[in-house]
Write a structure and sequence with these properties.
mainly beta; Jelly Rolls; 2 domains; six-stranded antiparallel beta sheet; 2 helices; 20 strands; about 5% helix
Amino acid sequence: MRTVFGWPLYSDVSVSYTPTFSGGSWSGSLPLTNLQNRRLSKVARSTNALAASTQFDVDLGVARAVGVMALPKHNFTTAATVRVRGSTVSNFASTVYDSGTVAGWPAGVTAEDAVGINIPFWLCPATAQTARYWRFEVTDTANPAGYIELGRVVLAGAYVPAYAPDYGAGTGLESDTVRTVTDGGGALYDVRPIRRTHRFTIGDLAESEAFGTAWKMQRLLGTSGQFFFLWDGDDTTYKHERSFLAVLRQLSPIEYVGPSLNSTAYEIVEEL
């Protein structure tokens, strides 16, 4: 098991760099820059479903070690494919990473299975790949919408804790749906989407990991900073169920559990 925090989000605007987008054919009112907006409802939309129109390049501004590449929300059909490449040159004449053509939709999952859930597309290579330029090539030419719609793009580093979550970890669902009982006894519902959650503790952290990474990540993210969470970066069966764009529900202390050993707890909630 390889638990992964897709962080930092290098494809977002930072204090040092403003990544730029180009390529394909995208709506002037729903442009590629919307992929940097934290609201998944603020989408980027291609002008048509031709393969030449539904690709795009991201210039991170500087070479970054990218360990997680994701499209957390999209309108792919089950026939969609995606190819992701990373390069040190803007024309992609040579590459440092090439995913090859991979399925954009999880195997065995039907459109009915996807009701009420954001089906993410993500890749998590065994080792981070360092490149400045990244290209996403989406092919879904028979999409009945006549276009491709994306809610966010993630090109992120990868924090992989040295140890898996401790036993007792929980994966759950929560709803903000409001139930109101009328005077007559009937119930009315203000239905809200269901969110996924994870709750777990990472133990046996060396001091260098506890304060060099875990503490720093919590300090920089707070309870509003987004990251892409992978319960298991090697999962091929339930990857779409347990991985999602997330925030920390609360910040947890680094606890001293033994000589040079620490632990910290996480409560993670999905962003919709």
